[in-house]
Amino acid sequence: MVSRTSKFRGSRTHGRGQKAGRGAGLRGGRGNAGLHKHKWISTVKYYPNHFGHHGFKRPQSVVESKVTINLSEVEATLPTLAKDGFATEKNGKWIVDLTKMGVDKLLGTGRINLPISVKVAEASAKAAEKLKAAGGELIKE
Fold first, then answer.
1. Distance between CA 94 and CA 82 in Å, rounded?
2. What is the C-alpha to C-alpha distance for residues 96 and 105, in angstroms, rounded to an integer?
3. Who contacts 96 (Cβ-Cβ below 8 Å, separation ≥6)?
4. Looking at residue 83, which CATH number applies to its domain?
5. Range of the domain at 36
6. Which of 24, 71, 96, 122 could be joined to 105 by an S-S link, Cβ 3.0–4.6 Å?
7. For residues 67, 73, 75 and 76, what is the CA-based torsion angle, rounded to 10 degrees?
């Protein structure tokens, strides 16, 4: 059987018409070519947000992100914190130094059952309330 290519030998256009076989001519260009010209209708219809700027990125010198930890995480990781030197136990009461650990703020998610004294720069109102209810205290630094 004769291959398709050899079948068209001697034919000027290989069955593609006058311009279809030249580069990306039949497709209207390669890739995003013509999105502002002959492909504008499809751009408006299917990709309305394709062009232009969307949002902004704040300069990193302005962005401030705090390192936070939840109460439940503090209680769950007490043995590890003690091993790393961030927590000590005295008379059945734990003392945890979160500022030494690099934490900026204590959040109040979760339950806490042990009386824990926590040293931290900032704490949410809910965290302070739960600490007092469990018999602990909040030491702001």
1. 9
2. 13
3. 74, 78, 81, 86, 87, 116, 117, 118, 119
4. 3.100.10.10
5. 23-56
6. 122
7. -140
Q: What is d(CA 135, CA 79) in angstroms, rounded to the nearest whole number?
A: 19
Do the Cβ atoms of 95 and 115 come closer than 8 Å? no
At 40-76, the pLDDT tens digits run 999 999 999 999 998 999 999 999 889 999 999 999 9
Cβ distance 99 to 121 under 8 Å? yes
pLDDT tens for 109-132 read 999 999 999 999 999 999 999 999
Do both 50 and 72 map to the same domain?
no
pLDDT at residue 107 in the model: 95
**38 in the same domain as 90:** no
pLDDT on residue 91: 87
**How far apart (Å, rounded) are the C-alpha atoms in residues 136 and 75?**
12
Number of independent structural domains in the chain: 2
Structure tokens given for 116: 């824990």
24 confidence band (pLDDT: 50, 70, 90): confident
